């Protein structure tokens, strides 16, 4: 089945943000291609490497909060 990659990226960024800790760190247990696209957009730091987490950029956190609110009903000031 074909999926809209933009919608997938939006949902993954929302999940990364919703479950972030330490002011923007998130576990990177998502598809490599999705994580690479989010990095290419400047929304997360480089996911390549042995670390099990990534940092969301300021832009990534802001957009992720908006996406989470839209997709999951999370208040925009959560996180």
Protein topology:
Layout lengths: L4 H14 L6 E3 L4 H9 L12 E3 L2 H15 L7
Antiparallel strand pairs: 1-2
Description:
With about 80 residues, the chain is mostly helical. It has one domain: Orthogonal Bundle (Arc Repressor Mutant, subunit A). The protein contains three helices and two strands, in the order αβαβα. Strands 1-2 form a two-stranded antiparallel ribbon. Helix 1 packs across helix 2. It is globular, with a radius of gyration of 12 Å. The model has no long low-confidence stretch (mean pLDDT about 95).
Descriptive terms for the model:
48% helix, Arc Repressor Mutant, subunit A, globular, two-stranded antiparallel ribbon, 79 residues, mainly alpha
User: Per DSSP, what share of the residues sits in E-state strands of 2 or more residues?
Assistant: 5-15%
Largest sheet: 2 strands, antiparallel
Helix and strand run: HEHEH
User: What share of the residues lie within helices?
Assistant: 40-55%
Q: What is the number of strand segments?
A: 2
Counted by DSSP, the helix tally is: 3
Low-confidence stretches: none
**Gyration radius, rounded:** 12 Å
């Amino acid at each position: 089945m074909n999926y809209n990659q933009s919608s997938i990226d939006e949902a993954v960024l929302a999940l990364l943000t919703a479950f972030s800790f330490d002011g923007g760190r998130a576990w990177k247990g998502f598809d490599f291609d999705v994580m690479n696209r989010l990095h290419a957009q400047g929304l997360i730091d480089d996911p390549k490497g042995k670390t099990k987490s990534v940092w969301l950029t300021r832009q990534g956190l802001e957009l992720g909060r908006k996406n989470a609110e839209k997709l999951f009903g999370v208040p925009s000031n959560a996180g």
